[in-house]
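Quick bug: ATP-binding protein output formatted oddly.
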Amino acid sequence: MTDSAQLFTGVHDTPVYTNVLFDKPLRIWVAVPAVVGSVTTILLAVLNLASGHALAILICGALLTAALTGIGALVPRTRPNIAFRLRAFTASVRPAVRTSYDTPILARPNLVDNLWFADNGSVYAGFLLSGLPYHLQSSRRKTAVADLHTLLGRELPADSWLYGLGVTQDQRQLLRAMVHGHRDRDDWLYSCAQVADQLADAEPKTRLYWLMVPVDAGRAGHNVVGQATKLKDWFAGRDKDSDSSLNAYIELAHDIANSLPPEFSPTPVTAAMSAWLWQHTTWLGTFTDPLPRPTAGGSITADQLPAAAFDEGDQQHKPRRPSIFNALPSWNKYVRVSATGPHSAIAPDSYQAVLPVVDAPEGGIVFPGSEFLAALDDLDTGAVFDFAINLTARPREMEFRRNDRARGNIDDQYDHRGDVRNGLTELRATERKIAEYNRLLSANIDEQPLSAAFFIHVGAADPRTLDHSIKRLREEMTQSGQIVIRHYRGANTRLWSAFNPGVAQHKSAVDQFAHATTASKWSRFVPLISSQLGNATGMLLGFNKGNANNSAVLLDLPGTARRNHNPCLICAGAPGYGKSYTSKKIVRAELQRGAQAFIVEPDEYGEWATALADVPNKAVIDMAGGDFGCDALRIFPERVAGSYWLDYMIPMLGLDVRSVAVGRLRTLLTPAARDALGLSSTAALMRYIRDIQAPLGAAEDTRSPQVTQLAEDLRPVLLALESWATYEFTQAIFDDTLPIPDLAALDVTIWQTGSLDLPDADEVANPHLYVALSDRQRASIAIYGMLVRLARVTFFNNTNRFGLIVLEEAGPLLNSRTGARDAHLISRRARKHYTGMLIITQNPIKDLALMGDEFITQQIIVPFEKEGIARAVAASAGLPLDEYPEFQDFFLAAAGAEEMRDPTAFDDDHPGPSKTTGSGSLQGRAFFIDEFRRLGAIQIAREPNEILHRAYDTTPDQGAA
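Here's what came back:
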């Protein structure tokens, strides 16, 4: 059965018709004035026949009856009612500036801790809620998120408010998060200071969720039961401001918070935060101060909050007209909010509009896909979009009786209305909705009937931006499930009070836009969702492109290990889209934060040496250059050096592991034998085996029988070693005069292995292919394997300093069984050894098959050129392709218009070399999977240091990527 979000709009508001007048169906507002007026007029005329005024009474009565009947015909058939519309019309025709001083619905609250004392005596408690991961998740996970909303809706007291606030991320707090734990690293502090301008240009934003629950009417809230509680307190003479009352409010708020699903992480706000909420909603779009950090206790009186003046229609700036028409109002459909009183400089004037949701599809909106409020984050118009949801729980039995009355009215209307104005169809539709509503309530005794009202608050710094934003909002709402919103002229000031908690529903007109629904159906709108990616601390990786908020994405690999998650990262994608650029940024950030890096670069290009040229404590080791040694007997600890030497050298030498020679060799390479015989290197081992061989010529052989036999057994080993020692690409193994880098003391070790040639997995797995491997390939297997194991052993032995192993162009290494085995071991054990691994690959499906990536969660995926690879990578990343066919927006490369222009347009080029990168409109874009398995598109942050940016770039003949 298809799940859906649904509002049972109008089930209790069926227009009433009657056919008492000439058996003609008329609305009650038309029939009553017509019947009463006609009868009254005729009766008065008859009674006054002798007075001489009968004709006048008849004429006036007929005119008055016609007028009242006409007015009755204008009464709206649906909510909002005539009273709301008349007040809005009056406010448009006779506008007046209303302030926080003289208008109760605009009054400022008194604040104590997380309590909000409204002007009318209502008391609310405020909590911050966490949005739940939802974007690009599977249907199963989305359903789980919606089910948590169901529990939330069932636990909230009546007349609770959920606010979704569009706020700017605190850039100062972002910088503090980046330097957290590393304030002693001057180079990292300087790097973060350079990022400040980048953050200011990006203006990252996020959505903040705020819950306000009434605590002055008991656990039930502001409904019939709650009103009875308030009446009892009134009879008892309870003082709302006493210490005992405050404690009772706080205890009730604590009880409500504990009843909510813990996934929402309800956190009590402070008085300073509540003051910020007042200012944010009052000067929406112009007040940009960040949310204050939590502080203990505190109170703020209403007089300490800035007061505001609400100019409906912005009469102060109404257009100039000829003098006779200058008294006419402006007729603008917005309100201008300005500061007044002693805090008049709090923020510039704000232009605002509040648009309620008035209708939704009758059959509901298919879930997933019903999260229409998420569309607010897709709008980038220069305005700020907030939303408010009022939830009023209704007693089940009262709701059943209410439905019965509505059903009875429908049955009656079948007789009175007939098919006037498509009446039969409308009545049947309403009857179906009531039946479905009753079915949902009856199916589950825990199902909670709700009255839900939705409001969207738009604020901007100027009217033009506001008007454009409202038009875009209407388009988004239409595309997000055919949600109908209305913009009422003259009602913005009154509707604004929906964002001032504590104002009675009939005062703020919230009751005019409430829709009957159930907790389970409301939950499918999933309003409390988040597209946040990354960590709370760490380096600036990029900006979230899952919506228009552009929120900052941080990456903290060492923190991942401390959180008991796997600090390994895969960076995959086609060449030229920024894999290496991103990896270099990550490595430099970790170096500046105190980590060590071990980089294997299978290329003679030397891009990593260029990128890290300014790092002082490093070693760049060219395996073909003869600068450093890579001998297992020298580079590994004594206790494991011999066994590791056997692991890599025996396959390279082509010896049978079950042979006598290898058995003898295994005995010689035990730690005790090596220490006794001085076998500290492969060259020393060769000298020892050579020395125990039979003397040349006629010299007397004085060897013991045991040594003679040992020499004979080891002769195949000596011959193989001497043969391999002649190659230039094996000198790192056989030349014991080459220095061994002190990896523990170095910050960076770059191993350039371009002179090596690793075979692929098939060549290693198939015996007939393996025997055909060249000596260079066999040596490459040994050297590559030793490098990866060396990094693992070195970093695993130091759990006090984070170590990062980087495998650039990791395909050749991971397609060898030895390299894949060690890389897999790192992926399983890196966490507890405080070690991370960064794998850079162009084809993760093929390159990681032998190694296995089941323990690696974090991935950065840049676009691919081939759709087949893109689809396979998307599926392996956990993106359900059947639910997100638009995956190509993230994974497939797209050329920019500049690159596909007509050749004759070359005259438009700027002088000098081309700056085109060939990566099209997706340059710098990536798909990121963080350690918590959240998925989303990001824009990789550009390196702010121009020198480093150029050093990272590998585009030929380009100054910038």
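Actually, after a second look the formatting is fine. Residues 175 and 196 are 7 Å apart (CA to CA). Closing.
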